[in-house]
Amino acid sequence: MSHTALKESVLEKVQAAKQAARYLGTLREAEKNAALLAMADSLRTDRDFIFQANEEDVKEARKSGIPEPRIDRLVITEKRLNEMIEGLHQVAGLEDPVREVIETIQRSDGLMIEKVRVPFGVIAMIYESRPNVTVDAAGLALKTGNAVVLRGGKEALRSNMALVDALRKGLANRHIPVGALQLIDRTERESVDILIRAKGLVDLAIPRGGAGLIGRVLENALVPVIETGVGNCHLYVDRAADPDMATAIVLNAKTQRPSVCNAIETLLVHEKIANEWLPAAIDALREHGVQIRGCRKTQAIIGEGNLTPATDEDYAAEFLDLVLAVKIVSSIDEAITHIEKFGTRHSEAIITEDREAAEKFLTQVDAAAVYHNASTRFTDGFQFGFGAEIGISTQKLHARGPMGLRELTSYKYRIRGSGQIRT
Amino acid sequence: MSHTALKESVLEKVQAAKQAARYLGTLREAEKNAALLAMADSLRTDRDFIFQANEEDVKEARKSGIPEPRIDRLVITEKRLNEMIEGLHQVAGLEDPVREVIETIQRSDGLMIEKVRVPFGVIAMIYESRPNVTVDAAGLALKTGNAVVLRGGKEALRSNMALVDALRKGLANRHIPVGALQLIDRTERESVDILIRAKGLVDLAIPRGGAGLIGRVLENALVPVIETGVGNCHLYVDRAADPDMATAIVLNAKTQRPSVCNAIETLLVHEKIANEWLPAAIDALREHGVQIRGCRKTQAIIGEGNLTPATDEDYAAEFLDLVLAVKIVSSIDEAITHIEKFGTRHSEAIITEDREAAEKFLTQVDAAAVYHNASTRFTDGFQFGFGAEIGISTQKLHARGPMGLRELTSYKYRIRGSGQIRT
Prior knowledge:
Two copies of one chain form a homodimer. By secondary structure, chain A is α/β, with parallel strands linked by helices. The first copy, chain A, has helices at about 5-25, 30-45, 45-65, 70-75, 80-95, 130-145, 155-175, 190-195, 210-220, 245-255, 270-285, 295-300, 310-315, 330-340, 355-365; strands at about 100-105, 110-120, 120-125, 145-150, 180-185, 205-210, 235, 265-270, 290-295, 310, 325-330, 345-350, 370-375, 390-395, 400-405, 410-420.
């Protein structure tokens, strides 16, 4: 496809989304909820077609040698489809944030200024191979009155087409313009660039995936972007830590689900507690299958031969696996400085019984979620009680940490007068 | 200067700002207020030096043929310096938004999640020739615990250096690290690019100026940006408008201060009221020195020879001058569609006694501020009661419309536990 034809094909969908967006902003909650349930019904009705499309994707992915963990993310099992359907039901049950009056300013001249929550308009989602993102994003966007343009991974295209086809039937059944839900079916990387440069049409782009995907989007976007997901999280065990609590939390934060962004990647240990606490903690981690990469001081304690040395590359890595870097620090300041240098501003925790040290850590560590005496694994829209999650923001503009429905809205000032002019 | 040397010179300042930022976030309100007053005192003490530097800038600007309106923006008069000083006093009097607990979530397992307001960290301001922005930005950043890196227009460099020098003396007098306030003294355009691509160091960039400046920043930035200021605003006079109110408001919105972003640039008139209302309204506008550019239907009413025809270019223009495009529309929908096509999402107004039409306009027009029966000139942080304004956002991410102190903050989740792990 020529560049011009590709551009036309992408922008046509974005324009259709924008047209639908104006109408979506006026929908009442009951209409949106009915459509969400109809979308869920359609997924159920079209299940065979969806499984078939997914099987073709999986077969093709295997043929082109895509590694098994990525194929696992691609597969739509019976259970996963049911979870997608259940997810739409859950979103229908959440409170609609649109039209909330956030603040009222009454001027002495009678002018009434209301700050009111509104949809963004058109949201572009750029993601990788998980087809559940397709359904999640469609549901959350509709609930918040946004049109959405989806650009999923190449290897999931057939699955996404089948899912979107079903979801649009649900919309149509409830007389919602199907323009509200768009899927970019072009697999050229350039189609992403066209989407994220469509200023005036796309109000927000949310990349969801690895550091490579997010970096490319930031590099090329002209529309506002929310960075999500990359989590190089740390647990700092202070000199005044309760040793048993520290062990329980490091095991949980590293091993309960190592492949997710809120799992820890580096353990920082105060030198005053390291001799006493670290050997048993490392034994426990190893029992859970964790490979340790340690700094020199860690090696000195554990025995050099027993440990892979940790490099700066390890400290910078988001392993997403049963691998943990361990570094002994001589002060809380060194821990904070290490986190500032290597952290991705996601989730950071301190274990200590020293209240002052805890407050210092909570205040000075710059991250979406800072924890005292708890596992980083709680950074999650469901755990925070949002009822839904579109991603976890690691930037500071607009939304930070787990993003639920409210984070998918903007606001406007609605001002009512009786002829007021400025003098 | 070589690219490498320029990059080093800019990044050195950004790094110094980042280092200061960690400390600024811990400052108490009283300390920040004392420093703001000390900054104001320094401006007073250094006034002669500031005026002298500014005179040199103005002389140089005249020599290089910079047009008079831009030179006028550059001049620091006695009155303007006093306003800058007064501005710092006002900011000291405003409430500090930092550390506000926005929300508390208590989980059944005892985990206590607090959403707390925090500074961004390092803010980059990119602006043109007005030196008052230097002082405003320095004051608002300090009050919100942010470090700020300023990059003003080339022609104001000597003035900005003198101002920043004085402001830093004020900081030093109150033992605040002067790293908190940085001025990029390189005039190469590339220095802006280095600043807005300093990911991990700069948390937010705010360009303030014309469409050209803002477009360049969006094109090149890797850090989050808030778009500000470009205002192509409309007044729509509905068929059910009160004619006298409509005249009073169009005059105010166009002529009270035509050079600002919340002044209107296009008047849309419903055809059912145009014959009766428009001729007298245009006479009144002309009496105030306004040049009219009209659509065909306007020409038919006013007389073809009496009117410059309006083109799409006129509809897209932010005149910032006593020029007004006039278009007659056959419905409120046509008005809304015109605004969607040409507006910059800043401020839009409808004049009508028809409540339903008003609600439709307020809901469907996508802009930071939507008005019913009032002038667009109220879109302003001071008019909204914020007590300060760093700019007017025309995007939907994070902040929309006038940005005061709160809009210069982010939030983090501060979570306190007693050993909670995720099961």
